[in-house]
Amino acid sequence: MNIDKKYLLLAGLIIVLLLVPMMVTRPYYLHVIIMCLLWAYLASSWNIVGGFAGQLSLGHGIYTATGAYITMMLFNTYGLSPWLGLFIGGGAAVLISVIIGYPTFGLRGAYYALATVAISEGIVVLINSTQELGPFRVGGAEGLIVKMVGDSAAALQFSSKMPYYYIILFMLFLVIAVSYWIKNSKLGYYLIALKEDEDAAAAMGINVRKSKLMAAMLSAFLTALGGVFYAVLIRYLEPNAIAGGSMSTQMVFLSIVGGSGTVLGPVIGGIILSLVSEIIRFYLGGQLMGLHLFIYGMIVLLVIIYQPKGIIAMFERLLQRFSRAAYKKGGASGVKDSGA
Amino acid sequence: MGFLSVVANGLSMGAIYGLIALGLTLIFGIMRIINFAQGALLMLSMMTSYWIWKLTGLNPVLLIFLVGPIMFCVGYLCQRFLVKPVLDSEKNVREPVSVLLLTAALAIVLENLALMTFGADYVMAKTSFSDQTLALGAVTVSAARFYGLIIALVVAGVFWLFLQKTEIGRKIRATGQDRNAAALMGINVPKTFAIAFGLGTALLAVAAVALIPFYYVHPSVGQVFMTKAFIVVVLGGLGSVPGAILGGILIGMIESIGAQYMTATLTVVLVYAVFLLVLFVKPSGMFGSRYDW
Amino acid sequence: MSRILELKDLTIKFGGLTAVNNLNMHLNEGEALGLIGPNGAGKTTAFNLIVGVYQPTSGKVVFNGEDITGLKPDQMCHKGIGRTFQVVKPFGNMTVQQNIMVGAFVNTSSPKEARQIAEGIMEKVGLQAKKDVLALNLTIPERKRLEMAKALATKPRLLLLDEVLAGLNPTEIEDAVKLIKSINNDGITIMMIEHVLQATMAICGRIVVLDYGKKIAEGSPQEVTSNPEVIKAYLGDEYDNA
Questions:
Q1: Domain with C64 in it: what CATH number?
Q2: Is residue A8 assigned to a domain?
Q3: pTM (2 d.p.)
Q4: Cβ–Cβ below 8 Å for A115 and B276
Q5: What residues of chain C, 20 to 79, have a C-beta less than 8 Å from chain A?
Q6: Does A305 touch chain B (CB under 8 A)?
Q7: Residues in B touching A111 (Cβ below 8 Å)
Q8: pLDDT band for position B99 (50/70/90)?
């Protein structure tokens, strides 16, 4: 039966994913895979507000930075385990998302986009010029080094890459599950409705601003977690890398190219594009500065003009051709055609 | 530096901000799209101006007549081939998000292209007047900035006259007010859009020429101006020409005066704080229309 | 019979134009009222004032004895006022069922319940056959029915219909009239803006006529159509003596 086959395939995929670290022994390769998964995770987190709610945040680096810096500052100074610190970092991210979103979600989308850009630039500037903040060492432009405490699960520091792989894999499953849940929930329906027509949505009882804020808050929290992971993995925070334009735009691009507004689009976009970027870096040795962003940008331009629904739309068409049963994309995305 | 000199400097930077914002607000006013590539196009203008200057040593005023048309063509083509197809596909959507994204992606492409081609070096067009200062009564100003101010104000004035008095100017304004009515009156709307976009970028060329004698050019110079131009546009009101100039001058003054009493960092934060304040209190800005968004 | 809606001295000015001028009218619970008048009379503007799209310059809107003037559209919906749009606004990329579910969510948070409510509504308006069709693929009469279905899903006590018969052929109008009457019979108060006068007379027990933002007549369909002021408003002075 068709349904059983699908679950079998899924189970097989999960088993393969769980076994990856056993099969991939070279730390460099495993690191690349971990980074791919991290980007898939970040793209998916962005997608909750950028794709589902259709609000173009061009400064999501704010949240990765908030999660990373707050958690690590607390860890370095007070030894607070990141497992606990992430709630504080995440909470701060949520608060910031509300400060940005509350005034702008009632206005044109460009105001929100602009506010995210301005705030993220502001944060980079602030961090760059702050060496100390009260009892905390911030590090300014030289960056913040995470205190090394050796192998410790409580500190999320491991000498082998394997635990990191499982953590990010779990996080990716989490964000996929959250995305899937949103899509099929009241919030998901509301977000699609307001993306289609805000006036009609309001006439049907939808508090547009509140729905957008909920998506933004959720996205901010999850993105902050991604920042925390980055911090414990790389153990060095540099303001531009973690909060700057490069981080923010990549999250957007990966999601758009993969297919924003879908559950798996950002995952696919994240994995494929980071692999491409890594291969480029490997063969060109990082000689040409700006090459990989240039290529990302070109790909995004092409996608927006010629294939706005993203890579995942192409995959789906292929799948539709192979299976006659109506392919369910899940819940409120509405890809049930009138005929096929 | 005397207080008046600080004000004068703020005025000249502000006028240039206003010019950049003018392009932005024009594009929004006519096409209802926010051009996120404005900063990158400014950088392109600056690079182009710099290299032409380097090769020919031309006087800046003449440079304008060369770089202006070049950038106009760049803008025209960008609109025609990149923006238009996406805009058309989002005709019925209230919020063309894809166009925003398109221009943002374009910005990234341009910036990184410049980075790859020219490297991250900072360059400046050291003209004969770059290091000069002028004494105007009690005020001492940098010559380069002063000329920048004059150029910006003159061009802004000419541009306003152009919009008000010429045939094309009227067509542009009509299309901006009601594109369907304009089409019914025989105006070629797509062409008008492309012209408006081209003008928006041509204004950048002027701002670029005004800047290169005293401002460093490098691939990410656009980002700084971009955000400021936006803040100016929000402050002045989306779609308002006087708002852009006045808003620009206001921001320029805040920066210049702020720099006397605060660190550079805090000045930046101050400007962003002003922006957030405007958003909370009166998002339509000084001259913007309440129903426009 | 209690008054479900009252408009007291309702006025709105757009700059120099007074679109609605001291409008005083009421709706009794359970009735069907027709709001007619020449183009530009201010009918849709009055609707928009009632549902909160516009803020009145002065005057009050009282719903069920509660002053709801100035509430936002989504709050109005929660109070029990549903409306359709003159130019229909379906959620194009969602199916018919999903469109209606959006409305159903006003009264539940469970997608399953919303789906059930939507099933019921689809049966009522006769769209079950198209339940999995994307809204952008519907025909005009189907879109009009979807528009009503969406509003019905929010379980309104008062339903404002804005020219739902426009663009329909006589058979489609007949079906629509049957549907509207049945909705009214279910206990939902109806106020409809309409230009198709015969159908309006068939549904509505009472008519209010607007011209230049002012109420110029009110009464039963017979009273209103023989009112000289009304004839003048629609046809001009020369026909006054017709």
A1: 3.40.50.300
A2: no
A3: 0.87
A4: yes
A5: 51, 53, 72-74, 77-78
A6: yes
A7: 234, 279, 283, 293
A8: confident
**Alpha-carbon gap: B232 to the closest alpha carbon of chain A (Å):** 12
A259 is a domain residue: no
ipTM score of the complex?
Answer: 0.89
Say which CATH topology domain B3-292 has: ABC transporter involved in vitamin B12 uptake, BtuC (1.10.3470)
Residue pointed to by tokens 């899940």:
A330
Structure tokens at A267: 């995952």
Domain count, chain C: 1
* A-chain residue closest to B266, CA distance: A126
Q: CB distance from A338 to chain C under 8 Å?
A: yes
Whether the CB of A204 is below 8 Å from some CB of chain C: the reply is: yes
Main-chain phi, psi angles of B71, to 5 degrees? -70, -35
Mean pLDDT for each 10-residue chunk of chain C (242 residues)? 88 88 91 90 90 90 91 93 91 92 93 93 91 90 93 94 90 92 93 90 91 90 86 68 48
The domain of C164 spans: 3-241
Please, are residues B75 and B41 in contact by the beta-carbon 8 Å criterion? yes
Q: Is the pLDDT of residue A223 over 80?
A: yes
Answer yes or no: is A169 within a domain.
Answer: yes
Helices and strands counted in chain A (H then E):
14, 4
Please report, for residues A80, A293, A319, B74, C82, the alpha-carbon distance to residue B110 in angstroms, rounded to integers and kept in the order given: 43, 10, 36, 12, 49
Span A259-276, pLDDT tens digits: 988 999 999 999 998 988
Helix (H, G, I), strand (E, B) or coil at A150: coil
